[in-house]
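Bug: token stream looks shifted between consecutive jobs. Job 1:
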Amino acid sequence: MTALAGLLAAILHFAGALKSTPIVAALPFDLTVVAAAGLLAVLPLLVAGSAWRADPLLGPPLAACGALWLWMVLAGAWSPSRGILAAKLPDAVLLGPAMLAAGMAIAAQGRALARCADGALAIGVFVAATIVWGLATDSIVLGGLPGASPDQVRVQYQIAGLAIASAAAVAAIRAAETPRLARRLGWLGLAGLLAAAALMPGGRAALAALALALAVAPAIVLWRGRRRGIALLWPGAVVVGAVMVLAVVLADPPLAAGLRTLERLSEGEVAQSSGRLPLWRAAAEQGGAALPWGLGTGGFTIAAGHGERRGLYPHNHLIEAMAEGGVPGLVLWLAAFGGGALAAVVLGARVAAGHAARVAALSLPVALSVMVSTDLGNRMAWFALGLALGLGITAAPRHVPALRQAGL
């Protein structure tokens, strides 16, 4: 049951990446709905079969999450939006708590978390292989380009890149854990191939997420395994290796041709060319003018002159919380996500190294993504926060016969 819960959680977490592949896109059902329904059926059994204990450190960030959801509802009262508000509030205040709880339950169960990480590894390999094959056969379009042939699948490169980043980090963790040299080289080779595949989709933020996850997650295992010299050198080796690969590829234009991520890196100033800098500036200006209460939930795009276009959200959770929720929104977001990150660092030192490393591999790419993409209604952000907070929860199996004898 715990293994199934972990696999379903991985599918739900990266459903967007899977649905960007031709095979999954052709399914006659919505993978997100099926994975969510399966997880909803399994999780109550998982919860009922364990005795749960929460660390007191979880209290402040969880209280801030609850207050943030409540404030988003209240802030909707003065929002000029109707369409975005009606779509965003259910995602944030209904789906958000469910995803947060699911992440906490998965991270609290060692076996469930391990299977979730294995599932993420398999998904990342599948998505990477599909993108490479799709580009070779001209069966996919990167980035959802307008005017693409209806016979081609539009790859959501940001989500695909996050899946590949987590998979590469999990492979590197497996390399750090295995004592056998041959297996270690095999896992490192897989991580390298996944890192190379990340150059295909075009997600620049996903490339940064890959470097972050690869640098941090395996280093946790190495440090806690008393291989501290290697642990200290590992992040630097990742950065140096990435810079060397990029330098070699960018120096050879024919070699770089077709690597969409590198093409987008060469487009000039990243924040400006991606459109994020104007959105950040507009959100800061419009939100600052609306202090202390903010523009109201979902109100930014209208205030910025874009109308009811949810896709033009501020692309930064912190700026979004300030612009739409004012001072209360900013403080509550910092207490929820910032406080959750601090609690995870402290709590991660108390759990097994592999457990903490897998949470890092699954959550760090999303953590970086929320600062450059997604809005507060994104389910991946809440699930990743749940995984981080789940480091403070212990789940001991209940003794069923004893419970029956006690009449429970």
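Job 2, same session, no restart:
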Amino acid sequence: MAAMREDQLAGFVFLLKSEGRRSVLGLDCGPGTDGLLFVQSGIHFTGVDPSEEHIHSARARGLEATVAHAAALPFADSAFPSVWAVDALAGLPPERWDDVVRELGRVAEPGAPIAVVLPEPGEGFGEGFTVLRSPE
């Protein structure tokens, strides 16, 4: 499972580099595992997570990270050239998904790639992710 996640992240990093994007917002970043992979790939990482414990762990790894909830991010409009949010919808009720995706679109630059897993209501989350684009 971890190898698959690293492959997915590597594919997203390839997309970012091919588009000249040099930083990413990591939503629900956990202790920073994905963040370290972005940094090792030359992509600046800013993480957010609702868990103070996770944020402390991410910061201990040298990552820039802030406590925040997915539906109310403490960033300006169009602040990030890309967003990695593959865990953002996990555990949320379906009626909250649109709010989170809207908030991701708000903090992403126009046309920015946003990686999310779009679950089907009543079903489990898929193995892959979808790249949405923020509104132009």
